[in-house]
Description:
single chain, 3-stranded antiparallel beta sheet
Amino acid sequence: MSLSINKEAKTLDINIAGTLGIESLLAVQTSFSVLLSNIRLPVVPQPKEAQGWWHGVRIGTNIPGVYTSGSFYSVDGQRTRSFYHMRDPKRTILIPLKNEEFYQLIIEVDSAITPEAMAENIREAVEEVRWEEQKGRRSAEYADAVTA
């Protein structure tokens, strides 16, 4: 499992294919990207949503306490679709989304980085993209005002 921030494409890339072969088979989806501008803050390390065994109606695999991966649909009236990929809930982060296929991602981070550090890296990348977009809008508004 790898999470990587692609600053050129302004995406968060999720790749499950690098994990054990059986995991990528059980996950249903092996890789996808999310626009950084579609990530809602805050990104939460060790979310409560990763705890416990019930994550919703699933298309994927849920072996409580062992492995969870795939799409899960909540049945709490909101009917949201979440993507899970994890073994250890203590190593997960929750990434809330807008305008994407999933409402949120609950993903275990690589052992080389803490969940808190990955959440901070994503937050910084999202804020940088938002700042660039805001700067671009202001430049366009200024250009419109000058030519008017």
